[in-house]
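Our working data are protein records whose layout never changes between entries. An example says more than a description, so a record of this kind follows.
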Amino acid sequence: MDNKNELFSYHKNALLNNLCKEWDGRWNKCHDDKEKLVRLALNQQSLPHFINFSYRGLGLSKEYILEEFKDYINGKYKAINADDVAGGYKSELFVDCDEEIKGSDDVAAFMWCKTDLSVEKCKAIKIYIGCGSEINLSCRGYNSVVVMLFDDSTLILGDIDKESTVTIYRYSEKSNVEATSGCLTDKVRCFDKELRL
């Protein structure tokens, strides 16, 4: 499938699956601008849809994202206020990344990744994990982490200090959460949620 057809196919699949008119309006305003498309994907209302459609073969493929959006992924771009909420909130998208990542942003999304994510001390972060990713999470101290875990992805709770809080929302029975001996906190909560797209 050529590049324009893959974008068109994703948009068509979204509409056929009753995606809201607000998203469609935003898509129509930005479908020819890669940065605006990445910002739309990193909007927290869009991320579950974007990740799950890609995983199910209804969205953009890994190869397509790596080729067409290479300047906007894997640490090369931070979307500021992707949700159109003031405050300087930073969001990043990682695709097929296997390098260690220092979590310093407010929102991080992982697709087809197998990597270590180390959250800086005193940082609150929201993490989206999907497309069969495996993320080994470590927290340096006094962190508040919220994880949205999709499909057959895995979250490994690595070195997490006793003062950190980790809240996990599992949107698939196939997703997996594992705790290592380095997970010292008793403030881990895991909830199963229904995925509504």
About this structure: The two ends are 25 Å apart (CA to CA). The helical segments are 3-16, 21-30, 34-42, 47-55, 62-68. The mean pLDDT is 90. DSSP finds five helices and twelve strands in the chain.
